[in-house]
Automatic annotation (TrEMBL):
Database matches in InterPro entries: Glyas_Bleomycin-R_OHBP_Dase (IPR029068), Glyas_Fos-R_dOase_dom (IPR004360), VOC_core (IPR037523)
Gene3D superfamilies attached to this UniProt entry: 2,3-Dihydroxybiphenyl 1,2-Dioxygenase, domain 1 (3.10.180.10)
Residue ranges of every copy of the VOC domain listed in the record: 15-137
Species annotation: Paenibacillus ginsengarvi
Name this polypeptide is given: VOC domain-containing protein
Top-level taxonomic group: Bacteria
Length: 137
């Protein structure tokens, strides 16, 4: 039996609707996410009359809006032990093959490491320096 709190909260929030990521060039970033990470374009990059620009991509089932902006919003952080963490962790089925593929494509990838029993990891930086974790579990 659910508590009153659980019943009220579950009725309010059921999932993430989308993520918004700032980028310096929506055309370059959209191309990078599609070419290197295999994301799917939902809405092509477009520039509007007011000068703003955005695109919409899918990472798996999750919608991500890429917004062109001069504001830099970090999506990574430093753990208390000094190591880098990323807010977004993306899953792949073969970490070693994907890591080698991105190296060959000239993508900025960080060293591959295992954090077992959790997962196998590496981090990747997009054209704006946003750091994302890639993992296999």
């Amino acid at each position: 039996m659910r508590t009153e709190f659980e019943q009220n909260v579950i009725k309010r929030v059921i999932e993430f609707a989308c993520f918004n990521l700032t980028v310096s060039d929506v055309f370059v970033s959209t191309d990078w996410y599609v070419k290197h990470l295999g994301c799917r374009v939902v809405r092509e990059p477009q520039r509007f009359m007011d000068g703003s620009a955005n695109s919409q991509i899918k990472i798996g089932v999750q919608t991500v809006f890429l917004h062109e902006s001069s504001d830099r919003v970090k999506i990574h952080y430093t753990h208390s032990n000094g190591s880098m963490g990323s807010i977004f962790e993306l899953r792949t089925e073969n970490i070693d093959e994907f890591y080698e593929q991105l190296l060959k494509e000239g993508v900025h990838v960080f060293e591959r490491f295992d954090n077992l029993p959790c997962a196998k990891y590496f981090k990747v930086a997009d054209p704006d320096g946003n750091v994302l974790s890639i993992m296999e579990f």
